[in-house]
Design brief:
The protein is built from 13 helices and 20 strands. It is α/β, with parallel strands linked by helices and about 425 residues long. Bound molecules: N-carbamoyl-L-aspartate and zinc ion (2 copies).
Length: about 425
């Protein structure tokens, strides 16, 4: 669906990002073919007037869960990709912890075909690192890469054995593919459901220490240096991890890292009762950890924002912190939350946020996105940055309503999302009713 290449004229576009200008954007067959003033197009070409709005390159999220096939009561490629479009994203990369895990050539080929057929945005795919995510048997990296996966990840499960991780890195390196790690030592995590510390003690809940993440990250960075793989660290949550990545980058290791909106905005002290909307993996950490991941994102140690959009059913997120599933949705709240809390408060500029949510993730993974320029794909977001609204799951396309941000007042409402020149979201669709 995202492959329908359309013609379109956007008038009076105030473009922000790596390119900054105000003018018209002409789109022909899904590609930006002219930028200028008073551009003309053939009669009948659809036209959008973006006066008063802000236009930027479509957002890129390298870490989403679409649950399709197998858990389609939580999300589908159709609903997840529409949620992405509603959030201003035009390219996402889906994790392979679906049912069954696409760990054979036919299964991954079917997944790629399904993504292309059913997604309204560009949906790329992470292949699993090992059969079934939990085994030590590597998938066929060369065959999977040839079929078109972006890279390899067992997200949801840490690779427990160093020998397996080292072999996986060597295999990914051999086919020039990145490896994205869900970093978690299961012996340290034990039965933890939130961050270990005074808040967990107060609530009487079992905790998982920072070292659940950082000790395995130290191992992985050592192995990444030895193998030369592009190692991507998923959802970094601790101050120790930020320090390790800063050190590895200084030493020339090919490492990139992501941080989620929730780890930037929330801490364990925000968990005041038994509310599973605050339960995710890795967990919300301490104030010092949150300040460290913010500093890491600002100084480039953490390269990019990724949502880790993890939709669940009401039933799976019901119950208690002990029993509920890990994970929260993020696609439809990420930009407005970060724009409101970081850009409007002056901690970050809008171009910096767009870089971390579009241009940098695109360039890190060689994705054709992140710019508004002639010859480039017409993947664009038109946003109203001036009208406040309240986060309301009734407006969402995602089947998942599991979020701790419901009820927050934010700025940054998507007016239109354009993928290859096609209007895949327009505000009237969902909100202007
Ligand atoms: N983040 C989560 O808490 N859950 C993710 C898995 C993951 O990202 O590790 C999920 O698939 O639900
Ligand atoms: Zn994960
Ligand atoms: Zn994830």
């Amino acid at each position: 669906m995202a492959n329908e290449k359309k013609n379109l004229l956007i008038k009076n576009a105030a473009v922000v990002g790596p390119e900054s200008f105000t003018g018209d954007i002409r789109i022909t067959n899904g590609v930006i073919t002219a930028i200028g003033t008073d551009l003309t197009v053939p009669v009948g070409t659809p036209t959008i007037d973006a006066a008063g709005q802000t236009v930027f390159p479509g957002l890129v999220d390298v870490h989403v869960h679409f649950r399709d096939p197998g858990q389609t009561d939580k999300e589908t490629i159709a609903t997840g990709s529409r949620a992405a479009a509603h959030g201003g994203f035009t390219t996402v990369v889906a994790m392979p912890n679906v049912t069954p895990v696409p760990d054979e050539e036919e299964k991954i080929a079917a997944q790629l075909a399904k993504n292309a057929a059913e997604s309204v945005v560009h949906t790329r795919q992470w292949a699993p690192i090992t059969d079934g995510l939990r085994s030590d048997q590597l998938v066929n990296d060369a065959a999977f890469k040839r079929l078109g996966v972006l890279g390899f990840s067992n997200d949801g499960v840490g690779v427990q054995h160093a020998r397996t991780m080292m072999a996986a890195m060597a295999a990914a390196r051999a086919v020039d593919a990145p490896l994205a790690a869900h970093i978690e030592d299961e012996s340290l995590r034990a039965d933890g459901v939130m961050n270990a510390g005074p808040v967990a003690d107060q609530l009487g809940l079992p905790g998982m220490p920072n070292q659940t993440e950082s000790s395995q990250l130290a191992r992985d960075l050592d192995l990444a240096a030895a193998t030369g793989v592009h190692y991507h660290a998923c959802h970094i949550s601790t101050r120790q991890s930020v320090a390790l990545i800063r050190q590895a980058k200084a030493a020339g290791v090919h490492v990139t890292a992501e941080v989620t909106p929730h780890h930037l905005l929330l801490e364990d002290s925000d968990i005041t009762g038994d509310d599973p909307n605050f339960k995710m993996n890795p967990p919300l950490r301490s104030h010092a950890d949150r300040l460290a991941v913010i500093a890491g994102l600002l100084d480039g140690t953490l390269d990019m924002v990724a949502t880790d959009h993890a939709p669940h059913t009401v039933a799976d997120k019901g119950g208690t912190m002990r029993t509920a599933a890990f994970g929260i949705v993020g696609l439809e709240t990420a930009f407005p939350l970060l724009y409101t809390r970081f850009v409007r408060t002056g901690q970050m500029t809008l171009p910096q946020l767009i870089a971390r949510m579009s241009t940098i993730p695109a360039s890190a993974f060689g994705l054709p996105a992140g710019h508004v320029q002639v010859g480039g794909p017409a993947d664009l977001t038109i946003m109203d940055l001036n009208t406040p609204y309240t986060i309301d799951p009734a407006t969402w396309f995602s089947k998942g309503k599991n979020s701790p941000f419901i009820g927050e007042q934010v700025y940054g409402r998507t007016v239109a999302t354009i993928v290859s020149g096609a209007l895949v979201y327009a505000a009237a669709q969902k909100e202007g009713r």
